[in-house]
Amino acid sequence: MTDVQARPAFDLTDPPTEPQATQTDPQADALRHEREALRTRVAERMLPKARYLSADMHRLEMQRLWPKVWQWACLEEDLGKLGAFRTYEIGDQSVLITRGAEGKLRAFYNVCQHRGNRLRTGAGVTREIACIYHHWTWNLDGTLKSIPDRDQFDPMDDACLALRQVRIDTWNGFVFICLDPEAPELADYLAPLTEKLAPYHFEQQTCTRSVTMPIAANWKTVVDGFVEVYHLQGIHPQLLRFLDDVNTTYEVWGRHSAMYMPMGIPSPRLKAPDDDVTLRELSAKGSGYHGKVLRSSRYFREVDGKAELTGGVTVRQALIEAGRAEAEELGRDYSGLTDAQVADDHHYFFFPNVIMNIDAGHFIASRIRPHATDPEQCYFDMHVFDWLSPEQKAARPRRQHVEVAPGTEVGRVPDQDFTALPTVQLGLHSNGFENVRLSDQECRVLAFHTSLDEYLFPA
Ligand code: FES
Ligand SMILES: [Fe+2]
Q: Residue 227 C-alpha to ligand 2 middle, in angstroms?
């Protein structure tokens, strides 16, 4: 993946020396104050704007956050064949993921043990990993295979020359890597999300579309913008006609969190909520997954182009009925899902940078990746999943991941977000602004930043 043009780069390799305050070292004292100024002001629910702008903050994240957490690197299906490989970059670190003998996935630092050449870029299929520079070669399991003219080197132990392993694990087809040998196991790291999400049966669902878009904003500006519904009234007013933002509820489990958005109910913010308008807007073609489900309801009909529900059911009841009927017809197991999970949009945040919009039988998983060097750029990787029938699965063409330019239309709601977020980033520079201020509705933003600080500023 090509990085967008970097703004002035800075050295990511500076050691993370925490300055010690002494009366004789004003420089260290100044740096200590600068770092203090980056911290979340938890009691006041405020976030200093430097968190989104500062090179020092970006450097701290690269040194203290990303090497410590489990990161969603790719999908298992991206490594379908024996010999498949794929790289994943975070900051100045590159990880090489391979599928070797017996289908086993492994991950390594993507670097040659001779003179440090980066071994691979992108993705492909290979029988061995040969460095292009002097042809040192490794097997797909990372063991050393051959070294040209080896007798000209001092004696070397093969085991020491193996590719350096990186931890790898999978969850429902998602491949995660972790650079920290001491971090908890993936299942423990993700808890309790794995248990909460089990009834949706992600393992049955297929990624049908994926797209990457660069965004001119700090990665946290983007995360913040996707974990609250306070902005619906401003950025997505059309959603208020069928989504109850005011009665959306939130759950925070330490670093991870969720919000549950009732669908088929108009926002109490509307001056004159109207069930007919809710039905018309939610069932309109192009209104997304819930619209498709609603139109399939046995209670739904169109008379002279006007949407109606028969049997005296509400929009929400029709959504539940249609969702369960569709599951029955297509052999999907919704038995573990509550009516709210069938009808509503449940949104999960996997710390530090994965968000999932989850409906029954359909979900969108997105990852927000920081730019390697520029705190004011990031990438949004959006993956759409559908629960396909075996016939649909067999007939579907192979998914092609698409990289698009900023401004490319990918969907009405995300387009509205992607237009707004760079404007937020620009505004953060203003001399007339100091701190982000958070409300109850933005509790997930505060939890995210508080968890981030536990990595950046350990006690
Ligand atoms: S740098 Fe890789 S073989 Fe020399
Ligand atoms: Fe949004």
A: 8
Is 0.85 topped by the overall pTM? yes
What sign for the dihedral angle of Cα 407, 409, 414, 416? positive
Rounded mean pLDDT, 375-393: 95
**Whole-angstrom Cα distance, residue 108 to residue 85?**
11
Residues with CB under 6 A from ligand 1: 112, 114-115, 117, 131, 133-136
Residue whose Cα lies nearest atom 3 of ligand 1: it is 134
pLDDT at res. 99: 97
Whose alpha carbon is nearest atom 1 of ligand 1? 115
246-290 residue pLDDT tens? 999 999 999 999 999 999 999 999 988 888 999 999 998 777 899
Distance 373 CA to ligand 1 centre (A): 26
Determine the residue of 108, 110, 112, 152 to mutate for testing ligand 1's pocket, defined as the one with the most ligand atoms within 8 A of the Cβ atom.
Answer: 112
Model pLDDT, residue 27: 86
Q: Can you tell me the mean pLDDT for 38-43?
A: 97
CB 258 within 8 A of CB 298: no
Neighbours of ion ligand 2 (CB under 5 A): 417
In order of their start, the domains of the chain are: 71-182 (2.102.10.10), 269-334 (no CATH)
CB distance 284 to 291 below 8 Å: yes
Neighbours of 380 (CB within 10 A): 25
* Residue pointed to by tokens 């730019």: 371
Q: Where are the alpha helices (DSSP H) in 331-439?
A: 339-343, 390-395, 412-428
d(CA 424, CA 50): 13
380: nearest Cα among 423, 414, 427: 414
Q: How far is the CA of 118 from the centre of ligand 1 (A)?
A: 9
Structure tokens at 229: 């519904």
Q: How many residues does the chain have?
A: 459
Q: Tell me what pLDDT residue 31 has.
A: 82
